[in-house]
Amino acid sequence: MRNPIITLAYACMFFFLAGQSVQAAYDAQFVRCVIPETLTTDEIFPAVICMRNTGDTAWPITNILMYSQYPSNNYTWGTYFILQHHGDSIAPGDTFNFTSNLRAPSTPGTWAFAWQCYNRTASQLFGEIVPAESIHVKQRLEMPPPPPAHRDSLLDSSDFEYIGSFKLPAVTGYDNTFVPSGLALRTMPDGSKRFFLNTGTYTQCLYEVELPQLEKIEGSDYSALTTAALVKQWTTIAWDTAVSGENITSNGGFWWDDSTNILYWTHYNSYYGGNGFPMLAATRLANDTVTNLKYWYLPLPRLATWKAYWRGVTRIPKTFADAYTGGRELALGFGGVYSLCQTASSGPAIAAIQKPDMIQDTVDMVEMLRYIYPEAAVRNGNYFQANSTIWLYQPPSPWDGRFTDKSGCAAGVFIDLPDKKGYVAFVKHNTGRIGYDWGGSVVDPHYEDNWYFYDLKELGEAALGNRALGSVQPSSFNKINWPYPVSATESSHTIAGACFDPQTRIMYVYCNFALGTRPAVHAYYVKIDSSASSETGLPGKTGPMLTVSPNPFNPKTKIAISGQPAGGKTALIEIYNVHGTLVQKLPAASCPLSAGVTWDASGLPSGVYMLQVKINGCLLVRRVSLIK
Where is the secretion signal located (predicted)? Predict the structure, then answer.
């Protein structure tokens, strides 16, 4: 009988020799490297690294990468690897050029350029290291362009104030850890607010919640957030049978019509390769009854495969609809996502439609915004494209770029207030490296959230046919810093649904992965223009001005009016919560109010309130924050 110790020794020697043979089978010799001698900071540049297969085994090129060295896997040149992804095997003795666009460091200096072959199957580096050639990086001289000048009547990021968030409840039988969802606002007869949302990983369920008290997130601590009360767990909103080979389910955005109890919802599938399917549908929700009414296609055949308008539906303000879209008060969008089968839009997209006719099969559509490549929406230059992508474009500077095939937009809202107007599109951008070097998916991704603001007048001109759709560029776009830390590699953290309440001037956005692995709804208040005399007045006109000081306050503050109209005798002062519910009414105050009256909010909880003062036929509005 063989000695077990000797047997173990033989076995160890076998595996050692086997490992040595695998290592010897893959070997590489450096041939040449074609790179610039000098660059400017953040400059995009092409690089070629030629390697010869000096082993005794052919390289399956889809399995061989170049990994950065000194130190290993560093991001000095914008990525730590170069992968060709497609190509023939490289026989022993043959050479191969690893090519890629790379990005210079953001800091000037002399930087080593060193790479080594890597076998993905064996998880091993092998062969010669590219000699530590160096590239001298000079400081970029041009300065970033100034931000667009703020215009009082045109929305930009400075007009929004984060006022709080709330958690979402668990829904029995469904997992809501990472589900993107639309967000629809419902106003009840008593003025209270509710929301429709979806949850569920594969099979989704529509549910309805009440708007709770808003609380602000403090850093990574969201324990104080209120969980919205679950009002109703509905069901999966879907069509009973497949249509045009597609199972039509509510997986995009949706909008609720208070007047008819109808939920308009959308379905999309970026991989769908047919000639179009119905992407808009209507379902009536009444008591416990769910009734599917109708589904509609985009206009055929012109837009049958055009995926710019597959992501959701939102409401168009009536004043805008009457002026520009022939009264069409719904909009389909939101574009900005690439499909392997048909392109969508290389930027946000939106089109106005009539409330669909139950007799017709297609929607009556007027396009307002879309970009057909090579047209593209602008963006920052914080990325570089690999060699082979669908929307190939290398940003000329860190501040100038264009939408890429990995930029997406899943939600948008129209805001048309007396003092503030604009369309907001919520965009997620890839940053850094975009895509493989020869097609495929992003495997080295970084992300940032941007809000894009569009001028309603320019959208209206495009809707009327007086302006080319792709020529409409955002009036401004800004990277959004969330009120809590967000990892740059968190791909699923994005705004999937949004809605706006003009009564309270509050915009609500749904973010999955907002609270670790859980979604949340964030609320942003549209600040009243300081030059606007009243909610119903025009910016720049003289008139009564309402002031509240201090604001925020606890528990008392002083309400005063300057420049009040002549002849006013009394002022009616009412306080509403974020639900639109009247919570306190002060005794009628004698005019003038220049000296101010005191509001004691001792009996109210902390939160955001809307203060309304009616005086001599004039309505004055201010947002106030009670912090106890």
Answer: 1-24
Q: What are the distances in angstroms from CA 360 to CA 209, 311, 466? A: 33, 21, 28
**How far is Cα 164 from Cα 152, in angstroms, rounded to an integer?**
24
* CA dihedral sign of residues 439, 30, 79, 67: positive
pTM across the whole model: 0.84
Task: For residue 411, give the H/E element and its range.
Answer: strand 408-416
Complete edge-to-edge strand list for the sheet that includes strand 81-83: 81-83, 64-68, 115-119, 124-126
Residue where the block lists tokens 């589900």: 179
List of E strands, 420-555: 421-434, 446-454, 476-479, 494-501, 506-515, 518-526, 545-549
Pairing between β-strand 193-199 and β-strand 556-562 as defined by DSSP bridges: unpaired
Q: Closest Cα partner for 616 from 573, 566, 574, 560?
A: 566
Please check whether residues 217 and 69 belong to one and the same domain.
no
pLDDT at 53 over 70: yes
Residue 387 confidence (pLDDT): 61
| 117 and 183 assigned to the same domain | no
484 and 566 belong to one structural domain: no
Place of tokens 């019509």: 257
Q: With bands split at pLDDT 50, 70 and 90, how would you rate the model's confidence at 16?
A: very low
Residue 128 pLDDT: 95
Residues 6+ apart with CB under 8 A from 474: 348, 377, 378, 425, 452, 453, 454
Range of the domain at 581: 545-626
Give the CB-side neighbour count of residue 319, counting CA atoms within 13 A.
9
CB 434 within 8 A of CB 476: no
Q: What is the residue type of 90?
A: I
Check whether residue 210 and residue 299 sit in a common domain.
yes
For the chain, the domain total comes to 3
Question: What percentage of the chain's residues is helix, strand, coil (to nearest 5)?
Answer: 10, 45, 50
Q: CA dist 451 to 39, 57, 167, 493, Å?
A: 32, 51, 22, 14
Whether residue 131 is found in the same domain as residue 165: no
Hey, how many other C-beta atoms are within 10 angstroms of the C-beta on 553?
17
> Three-state DSSP class for 465?
coil
